[in-house]
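In practice, a research group might receive sequence data for several interacting partners and want a quick structural hypothesis before committing to experiments. The following worked case mirrors that situation: the sequences arrive first, and a predicted assembly follows.
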Amino acid sequence: MIPVLLILIPLLTGLVTFFIKDEKMARAWSLITSVGTLAVSVAGITVFKDPGNLQRQYEWMQQLGSSFSVKIDGMGQVLCLLTAIAYPLIFIGTWKTQYKKAGNFFALMLLAQAGLMGVFVAMDALLFYFFWELALIPMYFLCSQWGGEKRIRVTFKFFIYTFLGSVLMLIGIIYLQSQTPDHSFSIKSFYELELSNETQSWIFWLFFVAFAIKMPVFPFHTWQPDTYEQSPTATTMVLSGIMVKMGLLGVLRWLFPVLPAAAYGWGNVVMTLSVAGIVYASLIAIRQDDIKRLVAYSSIAHIGLMCAAIFSENKSGMQGVMLQMFNHGINIIGLWIIVEIIERRFGTRKMSELGGLAQKAPAMAVFFVIIALANIALPLTNAFPGEFLMFNGILNSRSSFYLLFTIFAGLGIILGAVYTLNMIRKIFYGEVNAVTGAAMDLQWNEKIALGIIVALIFCIGVYPQVLLNMTDEISQAIINKRHVLEAISK
Amino acid sequence: MQNALQIVYLIPLLPFIGFLINGLGRNHLSKSMISLVGCGTIFASLVLSVWAFIQVKNGNAGTVTYFNFISVGDLTIPFAFQVDQLSAIFLLIITGVGFLIHVYSTAYMHSENSPHFGRYFSFLNLFVFSMLLLVMGANYVIMFIGWEGVGLCSYLLIGYWFRKQEYNQAANKAFVMNRIGDLAFLIAIFWIISRVGGVNFADVFAVAKGEVLHRGFSETDITVVTLLLFIGATGKSAQIPLYTWLPDAMAGPTPVSALIHAATMVTAGIYMIARSNILYSMSPVAMNVVAIVGLATALLAATIALKQNDIKKVLAYSTVSQLGFMFLALGTGAYVAAVFHVMTHAFFKALLFLGSGSVIHAMGGEQDIRNMGGLSRKLKITYITFLVGCIAIAGIPPLSGFFSKDAILLSAFTHNKIMYGIALFTAMLTAFYMFRLLFLTFSGKFRGSQEQEHHLHESPAAMTIPLIILAVLSIIGGFVGIPEIFVHGGDKLTAFLSPVIPQQPAHIVSHSTEYFLMALSTGLMIAMIIFAWIKFRNYRRSEAAGFGKVLENKWYVDELFEKIIVQPLHKLGGFLKSTIENSVIDGLVNGVGKVVNYGSRQFRLLQSGQVGNYVLLMVASMVLIFAIQFFLRK
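A structural hypothesis for the assembly, expressed as tokens:
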């Protein structure tokens, strides 16, 4: 019942929100329902975690070979938890931001949450595709209606990219379905497929391009900085914190086990792209003046590492990715909350125009420094165990270029420190100027949201095993599945 | 006795609690309260460290495991502490010297207002916490946590006066240079995991020694791992090529410099290699690299120190140089001598830095020794203690520096005569620049402004008492390692450390040679001091010229790094941003977009910006694809 609830609560309450005209009501309503979703999600991990509660199957488009089949596995637990925690944090953190037609704004946000939950729990390819689109469509509206000056052009670009990806993926899904003996979209049928290496090889790219655009991995990334920059920050948080995980989950659940030979064969290519992307995005991040674009490029680098780690094909890498999916979401939302505050208070996101904020807003400075340091994976913050396991995975991968990959990905650690510390220095240190002279420190809502984020950063940083235990079984299953299939395909 | 050691977690935890109290309460607590918390927690750690030391001395060394930090598949990384002879000595140095620096800070930082005072003490506590974690960790990962932790704390404290962007730059530089080393350390850890399957010291060393049958930790692997670890150590312990951050690190308050240079941070690299001595002893290649880099750094830094005019910069380069000596010791297999020098160096370098702080305090913030002189009359305690520090670092018997440096020189002598010659020459330079510093600061006529002269005063007791204690330690600290030729069984340190650092088969030199070497070095040092006395007793200001200029500008290494690393990367970033990203990749995408736009305008089906139409398009395409699929099946 849990997965159905996780989809239905945001879906229904989101539809209701369209009819709430009062801004405060809409805001409060969305927060309350998102807390409700969080409660259900936590219950699914703690109290009702027996398998019966975590899966459901209903009839749905039976004639096409599809069914409404949902299940929360270990990876789903982590990602549903992330989605469920992120939403209240986003609503609290941006509590003071004003929106025109707020009812519609919050309604679309909640619909996107329903779509995201669906993507994370769908065990039927068509259903997966359906939710994939359900999550994206509200994003277009949010970005084009509430975005910045260049929103039209940027949304168009975003659309072209993701549309291209979606179409390719749909073709792939339909082809795979036609290859199954029972013409079914169910994940089980997909997993039992035994395709020739040649077929796997080209189908791989249909899926991978779609997922690579979503993550995004170099060179499919240029929609991302523009979209992050132009979207309203709450939307950017959903996009960067949660939605990018759709791509990673796609690779882990729908690509790897289904097309194992291709994943193995193309592994070096994908890892090269990912690792090149880390260095590429980090170098560009160093030259950014706009905070939003800097964080956007930093996110490309981090995602690149995750993508490379998936293709390391071992347990350390896989579990590192699954842990990091959660951490990356939490941390980047924290960064956006502060970016949003800065933009709202000072009317600029240019670091060259800011400075000295630590004197005027010490609490903000402390939170920002902690979250920024978590972003560069300092030990005892949440990102460290994640990155540690991922790097360990890459170095221990079977790729013959394992050492090169590790070193180049490692450059990201150094360059990450460069741009992150420069960002801190330019925004918070130095003398105050005309722009930052009258700065106010954090308000209660911001303190609550950031306080929760920092607490999560340290708790997971000291005891990452909480999340690692959840993903233990599923990561093993993905790897075993691969091994079995490899043996067959030989 | 495992249970008794269980409580050692309090040793790092207490400073961490102090960090939390002062960090969170900095706006509410009074300065005396902050001082009490800051110093009190470190003192409690010191007491516990003494207790732990006694436990170890009574044969209760051991490892305590608290929980599994990471457990994935076959890999388990426990959160465990190891309390043995080596870590016990470091615990005493860290908490002991650290405590004195804390006490000193209460007076030195007194003019700061209370939120900043609280911030300062919270960072100081965090620094000690990280360093304690580093030396107590029972595996490479826990060590790495402390390792990056001290990097963070140095960043926070170097940039403590964050309004000056110049200081912040120095802080960033420290962090980034450390991170370069950290990356090598990390790769070393992964390498170990891939070969050994675990990171616990005990397991790794057992596999290396072949005590445990394993799929193979070959000699090549050991060389790779030890070299990578050494790159890590060059970052933290400021060796070539990653040393340039340390002299810049004096941007922080002076007690912080004392903490970085003496009790924490820079000794981490020495500790790491001493801890891994079993691995290093198995790789002659790595040993040679360590010795050569150490020696080269010692010499390079000593030449630079000759011409520096900032009191703290001279001390900073002397630290780099002394660390070079320690690496020389490690590289020649004299691990105990390196640890010994860490200890004595902690005493006299903390003393010298705190003494320089006392001078700067009296001079109203002045750091240029060309503007000082004749301070001995006004700052009696500071002068005497500083003098003790200088004699100790110069290596004059019977002060502590003599014994530890002698052990290093002797090891170099038995290893390679050329190395010994260079090391001896470097030691002579050390004596020279330290006494140049002393004479310029304390002898001759006062060269500062009248206002400064009027203001000159001895520092308060909270600053002078730590100086006196450190001076006493600098005098007697060497007696734990008296060479066997003087007193049989006098080298207590080697005996104490033997469970961790197996005694090397020593190259025995004859007693007469050993006596001769001691006499030679002592004589040379005294000669250098006299030379400095003649040259600098009545210093008159003069501009450096020729080669002196090169030394004053530190061989232009900073400028070189800027030219060959920083600027090219910066340019590459700009090129990627403006050319590749905007023109090539985005140009391609926008081209596609334009085509679509053009097509759409032709068919008047949709207008860009109308998202509704995109959705329509998407639904339509889905229907289309399903239709195709439907026909395909037929």
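Before designing any experiment, note the following. The longest helix of chain A spans residues 315-346. The longest strand of chain A covers residues 55-59.
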